[in-house]
Amino acid sequence: MQRFYLITSSVEPLVQLVPLGVKLVQLRIKNASESDIRRQITVAKAICEKHTAQLVVNDHWGLAIELGCDFVHLGQEDMETADFNALRAAGIQFGLSTHDQTELDRAMSFDPAYIALGPIYETSLKKMKWAPQGLNRVAEWKTQIGQTPLVAIGGLTPERGAKVLQAGADSVAVVTDIQTAKNPAERTREWLKVCG
Ligand SMILES: Cc1ncc(COP(=O)(O)OP(=O)(O)O)c(N)n1
Ligand SMILES: Cc1nc(C(=O)O)sc1CCOP(=O)(O)O
Ligand SMILES: [Mg+2]
Fold first, then answer.
1. Of 19, 38, 49, 185, which sits most exposed with the smallest number of CB within 10 A?
2. Which residues form the Thiamine phosphate synthase/TenI domain (predicted)?
3. In terms of pTM, does the model score above 0.95?
4. CATH (domain of 47)
5. Domain membership of residue 175 as a residue range
6. Is residue 128 part of a domain?
7. Which of ligand 2's atoms lies nearest the C-alpha of 97?
């Protein structure tokens, strides 16, 4: 699995960042109309195909099927409504969010392409009911899930990302650190270096 996992809130940053060598990208759109989400997924898919990057569509599994995407990310609430049979029939891989043991047990029963654990550190992106998981929890999750890839998310910076990878994560997912960087391209290069 790719060690650096870039998540953006819209398709626009992908135009600049994917050509830098980012190979795993999540489009995490909130609060847009369905037609605009459809447009953004279509553009993101074209950019990722051109640069041989893997696009992961967050939440919108129905549109992912409709638009011929091959990877989605689902949280625990998304899992309530997702049609896993339809996803499997369409050959779409899925990654699942987890925050505690109950969620991990549930998620593993779906045989996901990866398990995400968060928030590793405090995040300013969204209000969360879980305290920061910390590095020991990363190691514990990896021990439990074995060969299933582990994605760590929440409050990550390049410095923290290196420690999280060392603790056992296979991949580090990042939103705010790049979204709010003065120079997102420069910051992305830094991440790519840290993730080797
Ligand atoms: C890689 C990764 N991990 C976790 C999440 C969070 O998913 P979810 O809990 O469904 O929350 P939203 O992102 O939809 O607000 C994620 N998107 N990606
Ligand atoms: C979207 C999201 N989900 C999380 C989880 O724990 O499931 S943490 C998180 C925010 C990650 O963004 P940032 O890099 O901005 O902290
Ligand atoms: Mg979700």
1. 49
2. 10-178
3. yes
4. 3.20.20.70
5. 4-94+153-194
6. no
7. 7
Q: Where are the beta strands (DSSP E) in the chain?
A: 4-8, 24-27, 54-58, 71-74, 93-98, 114-117, 150-153, 171-174
Q: Is residue 15 part of a domain?
A: yes
Nearest ligand 2 atom, CA 75:
7
* pLDDT score of 72: 98
The residues, ordered by sequence, that sit 6+ positions from 169 with a Cβ below 8 Å of its Cβ are 117, 138, 142, 150, 151, 152
Quote the ligand 1 centre to 185 CA distance (angstroms): 23
Answer yes or no: is 59 within a domain: yes
The number of folded domains in the chain is: 1
pLDDT at position 88 = 97
Query: For the segment 126-141, what is each residue's pLDDT rounded down to a tens digit?
Result: 999 999 999 999 999 9
Ligand 2 — pocket residues by CB below 6 A?
97, 99, 118-119, 123, 125-126, 128, 153-156, 174-177
Please list the ranges in the chain whose pLDDT falls under 70.
Answer: none
| Residue of minimum CA distance from atom 5 in ligand 1 | 97
